[in-house]
Amino acid sequence: MLIRNILVALALIPATALASIQEFKLDNGLRIVVQEDHRSPVVVSQIWYRAGSLDEVNGKTGVAHVLEHMMFKGTQNVKAGQFSRLIAAAGGKENAFTGNDYTAYYQQLEKSQLPLSFRLEADRMANLQLTDEEFAKEIKVVMEERRWRTEDKPQSLVNEQFQSTIYRVHPYARPVIGWMNDLENMTAADAREWYHNWYAPNNATLVVVGDVKADEVLKLAKKYFDVLKPHVLPVRKPQTEPEQKGERRVIVKAQAKLPYVQLGFHVPALRDADQDWEPYALEILAGVLDGNPSARLSQSLVREEKVAVDVGAGYDMIARGQQALFELNGTPSEGKTAAELEAAMLLQIEKIKEFGITNEELQRVKAQVIAADVYKRDSMFYQGMQIGMMETSGFSWRILKDYPAKLSAVTPEQVQAVAKKYLLRDNLSVATLDPQSIDPNDKKTKAKPYVR
Q1: Judging by DSSP bridges, how do beta strands 204-210 and 31-36 pair with one another?
Q2: Residue 164: strand, helix, or coil
Q3: Catalytic residue among 36, 56, 68, 342, which?
Q4: Which positions ≥6 away from 208 have C-beta within 8 Å?
Q5: In the annotation, is 68 catalytic?
Q6: Which of these, 375, 365, 301, lies nearest to 338 by C-alpha position?
Q7: CB atoms < 10 A from the CB of 437, how many?
Q8: Whole-angstrom distance, CA of residue 416 vs CA of residue 380
Q9: What predicted TM-score, i.e. pTM, was given to this entire model?
Q10: pLDDT digits (tens, 9 = 90+) for 320-339
Q11: Which is higher by pLDDT, 33 or 450?
């Protein structure tokens, strides 16, 4: 799962909710963060493992995601497929997702069913039965998922090539789902190795949001998780992307109706939550370019110049791998080329570098963040996601409450400064979709939509 601009709605979390957060740590290293929210008798439980594609090695790409699938295949106490059935029988819903920086599992239940969630998660954290037979079946499911999510989708193919072009050394170059050749040659032993390396209480964070009492959650967590033993975790070596020394380009040919172009610049991720200001200025810059119909890219390129049918910009400041990108992407209008759209997007950046942004634009973006979609404020799951991503990426949930003030402190001059400093041609990578004719007689079987 990719989650764009994860900090954009942090200000939506009510101050009273942040004030009700408590955290604990068990003797085995399991961290527990509880946010009380008593508006409805519901609880969301999420277990986050600090293990994602960032931690993989060449030849075994995709193993983090494959293990996510295998976690539903049973333990000594729960047969394969029973995990989901037990949650459904309790009236709940559950799923999981893998990213560059983490793998997470969640359940949403009526509050009295929280013990069921804890019992099942504690069981599969330590007692997963990873058989060759189940692996042989599930790896085929993962390969089909790759075909459906990536190989049958031209823009996904472009994004995959873009990531492996802009990153030459860093693990973010690898697709989370893995390269097909690695999946074809993966074994159950690879998945077992990943499980034994990373699935341990001292590499996990339990996040609970809902109609609960923090002390009762702690008591329940001790009952189910305290018996689990910590592991000695593999040493994580620093992995830094070398400075880019010149413009990079890649062209992807695939069957499609329209071209597509994706641009990216290396920019800093958040490192020091107290001192850094550039990531917040980059957040504002992304909001000036994209975010609503009055943003520059949509206003100028879609409605006025009609060079694009859609266009966007984005930046994520939180990354455990300490690498971040400022990205732009778009689809040219019919009759326009990817090169024309690329030039138009870069021109908008040059205008900001030369003339800066207006105070009205700055205030619009700030107001947009602070008063954005009210529905997200009501989502217990979303609030848990924010906490889990912060904690798993090496930050405290406490930085959530400081985000509006940090954003409000950004000046137009700072936004212009980061554009001048980082959005340079020698720091630019471009991936372009060259659309190939779609053969109506092509009998090639498409992958089926993936559903867990």
Answers
A1: parallel
A2: helix
A3: 68
A4: 32, 33, 34, 35, 43, 44, 45, 46, 114, 217, 384
A5: yes
A6: 301
A7: 9
A8: 36
A9: 0.92
A10: 999 999 999 999 999 999 99
A11: 33
